[in-house]
Amino acid sequence: MQFGVFTVGDVTQDPTTGRTLSEAERIKAMVAIALKAEEVGLDVFAQGEHHNPPFVPSSPTTMLGFIAAQTSKLILSTSTTLITTNDPVKIAEDYAILQHLADGRVDLMMGRGNTGPVYPWFGQDIRNGIALAVENYALLRRLWREDVVDWEGKFRTPLQGFTSTPRPLDDVPPFVWHGSIRSPEIAEQAAYYGDGFFHNNIFWPISHTKQMIDLYRRRFEHYGHGSADQAIVGLGGQVFMRKNSQDAVNEFRPYFDNAPVYGHGPSLEDFTRETPLTVGSPQQVIERTLSFREHFGDYQRQLFLMDHAGLPLKTVLEQLDILGSEVVPVLRKEFDSLRPAHVPEAPTHASLKAAAERARALETVSPEVVGLEGTAR
Predict the structure, then answer these.
(1) Whole-model pTM above 0.90?
(2) Contact 189, 223 (CB under 8 A)
(3) Are strands 159-162 and 149-151 parallel, antiparallel or unpaired?
(4) CA distance 303 to 207
(5) Which residues does the UniProt record annotate as the domain Luciferase-like (predicted)?
(6) How many C-alpha atoms does 38 have within 13 Å on its Cβ side?
(7) Cβ partners under 8 Å of residue 272, min gap 6
(8) H or E segment to which residue 76 belongs
C-alpha cells in the first residue's frame, strides 16, 4: 500500500499571525514538503492543478520535474490533472517527458477540478464537463498506446498520422487514477478502462464515499478486469496531530475556523464527526484510517492533506515527521497483514513494465504451446 501527501497549493493567511506567504515562498514550501515526504519514508507526493488565486500550482510538470531531480524514490503524482481544459496531446507529451526524467516515478489523477470559470479561460463550456472528460481521456490513452494516431472528435481539431513524442518510458504509459467526489460517470470511466479510482474523502460522509467506491468496484468487475475487491482504489484524508489530542485540537482550531474551504461553517467537532478529518493523537489517526478499510474494502493508496489553511511550513514539516515515524509504519504493517493475497498492490512503473513484458512474451508463444500449457494446468 502507498502512503503520501497531496497539496492544493493554496496561499492562505495564517490566522494566528496575520502573515500570508508570497507566491515564491509557497512554491518553495511545496518543494520542501515533497523532499520531507521522501525523507520520512512516504511513497507519494501529489499536487493539484489550479489556474486561479489563491492557488499557485498552475504547472504541475514544472514543479514535479524540479522535485524529481532532487528525489530518488518518491512517486510524483497529480492530485488533479484537468482532463477537461488541457489538450490531451499536451498532457501526453508533458507527462511522458516527466516520466523519463523521473525514471518512471510518475502517475496522474485525472479530474475536472472545482473552479467553474477555468472552462471559458481555456475555451471550453462547463456544461460539457463530463463529455470533455470522456473524450479527452479516450484520446490520451490512444496517444500513449499507439505510435500513429488518426482521430476525430467533438472538442478539438482532428489528428491525422500523429505521433506523440516522446513515447512513454519502456512503452509503459503512466498509471492513471480518475478522481471524483460526486460524479458516478467518472467512477464508470475508471472502471471501464480498469484504471484506478480516487475519492478525495475529505468533505463527504462515509455513506457517500462508500456509494461511489462500491459503484466503481461493481463496474470494474462488470468490465472483466477482475473481481470487485481487486479494483484499484485510492483515498484522501485530512489529519492534524500532536502527542496530546487536546493540544492538537487547540492548535488546529483557528486554522479550521478561518480556512477558505470550510471556515465559518460547521464546528470543528461537527466536521470531524461527519467527515474523515481527524484532529488528535497519532493513535487516533491510526485508528480512524484503519477504519476506512471496514467501509471501503482493501485499497491501494492513502494520501493526506496537511499543508492547507495557512499552516506554517515548520508545523507541516513537524506533522510529516509524526506521520512518517509514528503513523505510517503502523498503518503499513496493519493494512498489509489484512490484505488478501489476491488483492493487488498499488501499481508502479516497475509492476506495469513487468506485466507488459509478460503479455508480450505470451504473444510470442505459439497457440499450440499456449494450449498445451492450459491443458497442463
Answers:
(1) yes
(2) no
(3) antiparallel
(4) 20
(5) 1-295
(6) 17
(7) 278, 279
(8) strand 75-78
Take residue 375 and report the three cell numbers written for it: 491443458
Q: Which three cell numbers stand for residue 121?
A: 479561460
34/45 Cα distance (integer angstroms): 6
Enter the DSSP assignment of 8.
-
Contact 286, 330 (CB under 8 A): yes
Q: Which three cell numbers stand for residue 151?
A: 482521430
The residue behind cell 488483492 is 343
Q: Which three cell numbers stand for residue 245?
A: 489530542
Query: CA torsion, points 82, 86, 87, 93, in degrees to nearest 10?
Result: -70
DSSP 122-149: TT--GGGHHHHHHHHHHHHHHHHH-SSE
pLDDT band at 369; cut points 50, 70, 90: very low
Grid coordinates of 137: 481521456
Helix axes 206-222, 184-193, angle to 10 degrees: 30
251-272 pLDDT per residue, tens: 999 999 998 878 788 999 999 9
CA distances from 162 to 168, 169, 309 (A): 15, 18, 44
Mean pLDDT in the chain?
93
